[in-house]
Model the fold of this input.
Amino acid sequence: MELKLPIEISRGYSSVSQQIRVMTETWVSRFIFCPNCGNNLCNFEKNKPVADFFCSRCLEEYELKAKKEKFGKKIVDGAYDSMIGRLNAYNNPNFFFLAYENTSLEVKNFLAIPNYLFTPGIIEIRKPLNPTARRAGWVGCNIIMEDIPEFGKIYYVQNGVMKNKNDVLNRWSKTSFLKNTHDIEIKGWLLDVLVCVEKIKKKEFSLEEMYVYESYLKAKHPANNNIQAKIRQQLQFLRDKNILEFVGRGKYRMTNDFS
Done:
């Protein structure tokens, strides 16, 4: 895999945004495989309203978002209403995120996030555009990256280091139990509890350490009045899916390191 973006492909494009778009899309076409099945990816025709790539074998679709330097806590996305509508659509694409170094144009981080890890809880509404703006009143959104568990961030390249293909496929496969979890509330609870597990930053942790995040989870799920019981329920579910291992006396262990 070549980490430098193909500068030669951008000749003939006048705007920087067009140059970056064609370079990043070409790089993905050349080097990135489908994380679901390992097959090569195909480009959609230009001006596809949602996705940029698809897999001809498993039919998964992918939308690419690229930015210079590194990913922050938030990534700017498009229209809020459109994004929320897509979360329940049958063809909601998975996401590719690419971060490149601005001077060398080398890919520093590239990751995939499955579409079933996206819930309304990680989408932040932005303020409407000012009345004087060309698209006055338009409402955009942000993707809150820190609310997506590391478990669901499947890196091909991390801090300039390439990952093994089998590792990428195995990491993706590990998340697949969420694909059949169609209830948005249930899925939201699972993902929020996973984020709390990762915040502890220990491979083995206790229920007491999880209860520290009771107020955090209450803020995300204000209608629930028994947060501790809900935490235990989600930990048991994650144990049944082999994401966690129960080691006794209120203690659990992560089965993999997803950091």
